[in-house]
Amino acid sequence: MLSSALLGAPLSKDIERHPSTQGGFLVAAVDVGRFRAYEEYKKDALRLIDNVTSCPPADGFTEVLLPGQIEERETGKRLRDGIPIDDATWMELFKLARELNVEPLAEHHPL
After folding, report:
1. Using an 8 Å Cβ cutoff, are 96 and 86 in contact?
2. Number of domains observed in the structure of the chain
3. Domain of residue 16, residue span
4. Is the residue at 99 inside a domain?
5. Of 6, 15, 16, 99, whose CB neighbour count within 10 A is largest?
6. Per-residue pLDDT tens for 15-31?
7. pTM
8. In this structure, is residue 70 part of a structural domain?
C-alpha cells in the first residue's frame, strides 16, 4: 500500500521477474521518542525479535531469519572472503580487460 499506491510504484505482479528488479519501496524515519521512551521500545523490539526468531523454521529451513539478516551475513562473508565470480564471468572480464588494454589482477586470473 505504501510503496505502490502512495508512491506510484508498479505492483510486484506487473514487474518482470529477474534478480535485479523490484517494486517500489518506502523508507520512513520514525522518532520513537515521540511515542514512548526509547529504552522501553528497545526492550519490546528485542522481545518481538526473539519471539519471531525462536519460532520453529518451515520445512527445509534451519532457522527463522529477519529481513536483512541474510544480506548482513553475506556482506561479512564477502568482506572476509571476497565476492564469488563464476568462471564464465571471469573470462568475460578478462576479455574486456584485453579489449580496453587494462591489466587484470594476476592473482585472480582464472587460466
Report:
1. no
2. 1
3. 1-30
4. no
5. 15
6. 888 777 776 778 889 99
7. 0.57
8. no
